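Hi P.,

Sorry for the delay on this. The queue was packed all week, but I finally got your sequence through. Input first:
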Amino acid sequence: MARQRSLRLRTRVTLFFALIALFAGSVLIGVTYGFARSNLLAREDSSARDQAIVNASQVREEYTAAPGQIGSFFDADLRTADGGFASLLAAESATQIAGSDTRVRIDDYPASLVDTVRRGGNGRQYAVINGEDYVVVGLYIGAHDAAYFEAFPLSDTERTLRSILTALALGGLGGLILASLFGFSTSRRLLRPLSRVADAAEDIASGGLDTRLVEESDPDLDRLAGSFNDMADAVQTRIEREARFASDVSHELRSPITALTAAVEVMDGRREEVPERTRQALDVVVGQVRRFDSMVIDLLELSRLDAGATDMNVERLDIVDLTHRIAGRYGAPDVPISVAPRTRREVSVDKVRYERIVGNLIENAKNHGGGAVEIQIEPARNKRIRIAVIDDGPGVAQGERERIFERFARGSAARHRIGTGLGLALVAEHSSAMGGRAWVEDGKFGGARFVVELPMAVEA
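Then the structure:
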């Protein structure tokens, strides 16, 4: 089952700050808006009630003094709020006596408020009349058994509340953006030491064993840096100790192997003097001693590469002619070399390292692939060149194509064949030292195609 990909830590930290800001902003906006709305409506209620009492007193006095002129008083002299209106009706019959707005009928007022005032009570209530919001105040005028109603528009209050809500929303959005930026900045500061650790680990993995982290001002981060440096010291010490051990062993073996090889060569030169059965044993000894000698030489070369003791001697050479000569020296003079169009023949390369790369690939094809059947030279991107050695052997399994470039690694199809298991490791090491890389893929003849890509101008 494929592993589900999660968000990056920096993204999660930023989202955390953003969500906290969103939650806090929403609560703050809700509380602030609710408080402002409550205060504004309370103030509007108080103002409406006071104004309604004043107007109801004037209506009572006018109705007492001139009952027949009450309608004219509502039309001309009664001062209601802008957009507001008032009505006077008989409490007992619920018929309208006068009103300041003929479009408004008694049925438009809240029925519960009308019933309360008709029974001698006072009250107020919010209502929607003709599509607009109002606060309606109802007062009972006992002297005339009448009910007075006055409606005060809430449009100004609603506009004020919308302005407050807009300002709060913009402030919340700004807070959210600032919190997100702060979270992103904070995550960068928090992850910067981890990035330095990752960079240092990559440098160590690529061969920079002396890479270390600088001390941090924060005690916790300084502990991380110290632990990483201690680990790097331990890794470097162990690798260097193992490299020295391999080098020392190879050096110590070189002298007895040389003497043993010389003795075996002498015995091989006099093989006609020994019986047939002894010759078979001698062939086995000669083959194994030569293989052992080749392995020691390869180990010494790898030890020098690990220690960085090999210099880069760059020369301007004809890559095609050089490849022909190398193939001849490694017993494959008749292998065809195909050169792709637009291939640049003159390149700057280390002659010795290039010979070790191509020679080992030819030897590998001979030992494990039945022999090289073609060598291809072709241009690559970014001013690089590719050299491929193709064999007609069993090929390399997909799961082994990276492992076979490790030291002493063998493919499953070559486990019982000859070779030291170090040739392809040397190819990879020399390619990397020259700024290139090596890999294997399927060959067009059914075998394997070993490819090395190198820059056309290797830096010394």
